[in-house]
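Priority: medium. Attachment 1 of 2:
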């Protein structure tokens, strides 16, 4: 299989290194704002080929992987689907927009291709997907991250919230997932994943906690409904060079690709 990866940051580069070892992957076309970063990756991954124009390589690939940003997801998801290519989306927050989400679903159906959304830095997505087949009364996500993960966030700046001054854990956001994804686009993609798997962006509640003593990104999920109750907690180590992103998110992308190119799915 020949694939295209949009983004060569923490997740994209980790994924590329893993795919280098997969016999099913022949070529990885990679684009990034930094050409030098991609070229540097070619020293470690012989399957990597840098590209600039998506139109030049789209006919050569079978799968597109977005690992850059919500803006990249909004640009490349329709492009991939219009060309009949499956796409794996990491910046799930892009789907918070109803019109965009609806457009992508229609394109996928019309062109007989798929949109893959990995579990990311979470556990319990399979349980939420099962529970929603009956009736879910409540979905609550509580995310705890260190101050380093919340630098230069406009939502906090406008409210004159200085996370570096915190001496103890403090809630900096409490509201629907729709607003959480909008105000924290690089911190809380997990809220979008939960919303899509469960009861939607309006009904899913999110609390974001800045913890000055935290050394891990922790996500706690509480789900209640006719099925009973689910409570999960993931305490993830962040990438050293990118505290906004959990290492588990990259591992989830690797797992998703292995499922896509393989023949056995566990937890469907």
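Attachment 2 of 2:
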């Amino acid at each position: 299989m020949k694939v295209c990866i949009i983004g060569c940051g923490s997740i994209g580069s980790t994924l590329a290194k893993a795919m280098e070892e997969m016999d099913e992957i022949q070529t990885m076309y990679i684009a990034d704002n930094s050409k030098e970063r991609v070229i540097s990756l070619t020293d470690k991954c012989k399957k990597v080929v840098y590209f600039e124009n998506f139109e030049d390589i789209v006919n050569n690939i079978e799968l597109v992987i977005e690992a850059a940003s919500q803006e990249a997801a909004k640009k490349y998801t329709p492009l991939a689907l219009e060309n009949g290519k499956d796409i794996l989306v990491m910046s799930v927050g892009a789907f918070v927009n109803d019109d965009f989400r609806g457009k992508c679903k229609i394109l996928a159906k019309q062109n007989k291709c798929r949109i893959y959304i990995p579990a990311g830095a979470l556990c319990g997505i399979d349980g939420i997907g099962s529970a929603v087949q009956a009736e879910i009364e409540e979905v609550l996500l509580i995310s705890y991250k260190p101050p380093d993960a919340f630098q230069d966030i406009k939502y906090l700046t406008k409210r004159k919230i200085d996370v570096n001054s915190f001496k103890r854990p403090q809630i900096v956001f409490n509201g629907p997932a729709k607003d959480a994804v909008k105000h924290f686009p690089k911190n809380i993609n997990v809220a979008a994943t939960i919303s899509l798997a469960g009861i939607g962006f309006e009904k899913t509640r999110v609390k974001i906690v800045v913890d000055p003593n935290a050394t891990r990104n922790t996500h706690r999920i509480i789900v209640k409904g006719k099925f009973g109750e689910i409570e999960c907690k993931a305490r993830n180590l962040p990438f050293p060079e990118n505290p906004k992103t959990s290492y588990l998110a990259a591992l989830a992308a690797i797992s998703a690709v292995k499922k896509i190119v393989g023949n056995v799915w566990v937890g469907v």
